[in-house]
Each structure stands twice: as C-alpha cells, then as structure tokens.
Amino acid sequence: MRYELYYWPMIQGRGEYVRLALEEAKADYVDVARGKAGMGAMIKMLDANKGLPPFAPPFLKAGTLVIGQTANILFYLGARHGLAPKTEAGRLKLNDLQLTIADFVMEVHDTHHPIGTSLYYEDQKGPAKLRTAEFWKERVPKFLGYFERLLQASGSAYITGRKVTYVDLSLFQIVEGLRYAFPKRMKTFERDIPMLIDLRDRVAERPNIKAYLASDRRIPFNEEGIFRRYKALDK
Asked: Is the pTM higher than 0.70?
C-alpha cells in the first residue's frame, strides 16, 4: 500500500515526526503537497463537507482510511511497521510518550508565539523573551529530564529496549530542532542529557534515517516552522 502524507510543503513541523517513521520503515509514500497540484488536493480534503474531514495537517491516507493528528498517525504506523511494541499495553504506553512529546512541541512553538499564532514574532518579542526564559528554566529540564530518566531506566539502546520505536525517532527530532533554534542554550544543556544525545546520534546513524537526512526529502529547518532561530531568544 502506498501512503499519502498531507502536510505543508515548506516546513518540517509536526509532519516531520511522521516522515521520520515512514523513512525508517522504508514505507512507500508520497508527500502529496510537495508535488504538482498537491496543495490544492490537501485543501480540498480539509474543506470537504462530507464525512469527518481532518481538522488540520498532518494527516495520512492509508487505503480508505484518513488518519489525523501526529500521535494518532504514529500509533497506526508503529503497529504496522515494527516501530512499536507488540503488546497492547506497550503500544498504549508508547502513545502516552508521543503525546507527551506533542505537549513539549507546543511549548517550543510558544517560545516565539506566546500570545497568538495570528501575530508575527515581531509583534510579541517582549513576551517571547519572557516565555523562552521560563521555557529553559522550567520546561526543558522537566520534559527532557523525564526522557533522560526513561533511557537510564531502560538500560538499553532505545526508550523501550533494544528495538527502535517512533518515539526514539521523535526524540531525535526534538534534539535536532532545539540545536537549530537554540544552539547556545543547547550547548550548555546537553551536559545534563547525555543519554538523549547518545540516542540522537544512534538514530542519525540508522541506514534509512541517514539516507533520508542526506536527501532532498528532508526539508531544512527554517523560520516558518516550529523550531525557529531568533538570536534574541538564544541568550
């Protein structure tokens, strides 16, 4: 089956977590909106007035299924491509972790858009500085410290043991994104999360991921996505 991934063609954003899973699984998929007339096809599905159309990208078309929300898509793909435990309890726990990552991603976004997404960053620079300071003082240690402890407890290469899961791929993306958006702050903070950094390196060397990162399928980080580099926030 060929999957159809629908997401904005100019950014990594939340769709990147799905792309990483599809690439690791070496799944047959098309990034629809990056192709000719793809944006029109995506908007048409979002604006459908029949059935239960998805609220927003990303969403995945798998045969007759249309699956929205990043964690929900990964829950589906994980079970089908060996990127999740075989037991129901294990799959549910992994989904729990992915939802926690989704919470963190929202907080990353709020560092540069703490008031509203309809406003430009330039319209909320003052609040963004305050939000970023709190983010690095309280939220980053809380979230990444939690995943660091999970890796320590696992005593293995990956978050749930010896096999990579979609959560490991997502944690790779978190580290990459923070390194892009906050290079100075991350250089200091990485000393507190050595196992997460080792995980990032391990994922980056996986053959399918390594090939993806070197390809033009990997959209570069930029100031339109979730992870944005603003010098005023990286002090």
From this structure: yes
